[in-house]
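Q: What changes when guanosine-5'-triphosphate is included in the input?
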Amino acid sequence: MKLGIVGLPNCGKTTLFNALTGSQAQTSAYPYTTVETNLAAVTVPDSRLSALAAMHNPKKITHATAEFCDLAGLAPGAARGEGLGNRFLAGIREVDAVLHVLRCFGEDGDILRDKETVDIELCVADVETLDKRIARAEKAAKGDKSYLREAELLGSLRARLDSGLAARGFPAAPEDTALLASCQLLTAKPVLYCVNFSEELYRRRREYKPLQALEQAAAAEGAAVFPICAATEWEISRMAPEDRALFLEDIGETECAGDRLIRLCYELMGLISFLTAGPPEVRAWTIRKGAKAPDAAGKIHNDIRRGFIRAEVTAFGDLMACGSPAAAKEKGLTRVEGREYVMRDGDVVLFRFNV
Ligand SMILES: Nc1nc2c(ncn2[C@@H]2O[C@H](COP(=O)(O)OP(=O)(O)OP(=O)(O)O)[C@@H](O)[C@H]2O)c(=O)[nH]1
Ligand SMILES: [Mg+2]
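A: The predicted holo structure follows.
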């Protein structure tokens, strides 16, 4: 999972990046401090792994990872190449989801206006992409009429973007999803609006009207909102682990920002984890909700997908209640599942395969 941190210059992107990843990338009060993308990977917290490790005493424990990219600030006009525009847009194209940071500290914070400024740039860039694709489809349609449908579909998506709506949420038929995905539109990516508050505003954010308006706008476009106090969270992330809880409590939290945010991203992107456990390794794997057993097997190795015979599945909770895989089997809580089995979050799986 690759998450891109996006927003206007000086909104606190790098501060958020540092808070989430424990990095020390340069921040400053001047705009365009970040030129080269900052990159860091973090482990996805999953307390089930340590419970499984206690059961199996493995050589290795492997968490799923999430990668964060802190991109250059976006200048209005980026879609026309202003500021670090092209670099910025190319950076977004590579990520699986967007963390859109909105400044709500210091003097000139207007989260709704700033959101719109960035949204417009992304829409304009997408319209440009679509125009190229539509022209190509129209040309191809002269020889092959089947391309007419493609041109028409992309045309109606273009009209949607023109009216200021994101490609995300465009009602597409299942047979069109591959075509739409191939356009790699920026506004089709899942978005989490990270409102970067001053500590003072963070404490009374529930009464902060623009946040409520943002939450409504986000819900309408299939996005979510994550209020955060990035500067404070960065400070807390640098403290000794035993001191963190107290300072988190001071801003009304029990968990650090990174853990909260990753969980939200999983929800937003429709991701779940399945687990594998044995003496060599206890490990979490990330898959999409709705993935079937062979897809999950393919995450581990393509040979296991190809030679898939069956999956032996125990729900994590059942396994813990029984105390051991053998006891779970004895009680009939380990199921044998075939190719059509839809994976669930927390399934502890052993794949049987033959290549
Ligand atoms: N008070 C307060 N200041 C913050 C917060 N987050 C960032 N800042 C300050 O805002 C300024 C800009 O922060 P950066 O993290 O460098 O912002 P950026 O979005 O990465 O900026 P560019 O890379 O230039 O686009 C710095 O002086 C930070 O210390 C916050 O939550 N509260
Ligand atoms: Mg920066």
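Observations recorded in class: Residues 42 and 147 are 43 Å apart (CA to CA).
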